[in-house]
Amino acid sequence: MALKHFSTLTSMLTASFRSKTFGHAIKTSLFPVKSYSSATGGEHSETVVGQTVITERRGAVVSVAINRPEVRNAVNRETARRLLEELEAFDQDPDLNVAVLHGIGGNFCAGYDLKELANHTASLKLEQDVTKGPGPMGPSRLQLSKPLIAAVSGFAVAGGLELALLADLRLVEESAVMGVFCRRFGVPLIDGGTVRLPRLIGLSRALDLILTGRPIGAQEALAYGLANRVVPDGQALQAALQLAEEISCFPQQCLRADRSSAVYSCYDAPSFTQAMQYEMDHGIPVIQSEAVSGAARFTTGTGRGGQFSEDSV
C-alpha cells in the first residue's frame, strides 16, 4: 500500500523545475536486450560506471532509466541533460517505436535535486523562453512523435510527477506515491505540471493536488485517470515493456497519425473544425500506406473475432 512510503517523506529530496526539439498477465520480453546509449553512439555491451541515465534496447523498444537511487532518482543538471539527449535520440531513431521511462532502485523520480538547487543557485541557468531550450528536468518541453510509457514505482513526486506526465501512459505499482511535494518548499511547477495535469484529470482534481501537495496512491490515481493501469509491486517495468512491445507491433504510421491527432486536439487545436481537419489531413496518407494492405490481411482471416495476435488466428 501507499502508506508504506509515507514514513520516509521527511527525508526526500523533492522539487521541480518540448521534441519537435524545441489487467493482463505479465510475460517475459519478446526481444533480446541490448544496452544502448546515444552518448556512446548506439548499442554497447557495458554500462558506464556512474552513468546517471541508462538505456537498454529491446528490438524496437528502448528503456530509459534514471540511475541515482541514492537520492531516490532526484534529477540534477547532468541527469536532466542525459534524459533530454536519450529521449531526443529515441524520437529521431527510425528503428525505435516506443520508449519506457523508469527509475532504478525502487523509485521513479523524487523531483529536482534540492541539494543542487540550494548549493549551486548562482550557476543555475534556466531558459525562460520554452521554445529555445529544455526545461529544468530535461525533456519536459519535448513534443515526442512516438509513444512514451512511464513505469512508476515508489515516489513520482514534484518534478518526477512532471516527468511521468510527459508520458502517454503511466503504469503504476500498488505502493507507488505521486504528488506535488514541492508545494512544501516553494518550488514551482515549471516542467509542464500545471499544463498537463489539468488536461489529464480535469482542473478540479488537478487543483486538489497542486494546491495541497498531498500524496496520492495508486488506486486513487487510477480513479482520477492519472494512472492508466495499476500493477503489483516490482512489476511496473516488465508490464510497461510488454505493453511497449505490443504497441510496437501495430502499423506505426497509422498509430502515430492517430496519436498526433489526439494530442493536437487536446492541446493545440483552436476549434473543433480545425481538429477534424487535422485528423483527416494526417489520416488520408495512411490509407494507401497501411490501411489497404491491412484490409487485405483481414480478408484472409487475420484479426477475425477481435483477435490481436496473428498466432491465435
From TrEMBL:
Belongs to the enoyl-CoA hydratase/isomerase family. InterPro entries: ClpP/crotonase-like_dom_sf, Enoyl-CoA_hyd/isom_CS, Enoyl-CoA_hydra/iso. This is Uncharacterized protein. Coiled coil: none annotated. SUPFAM superfamilies: ClpP/crotonase (SSF52096). It holds the Pfam family ECH_1. It comes from the Eukaryota. The lineage of its organism: Eukaryota, Metazoa, Chordata, Craniata, Vertebrata. GO terms for molecular function: catalytic activity.
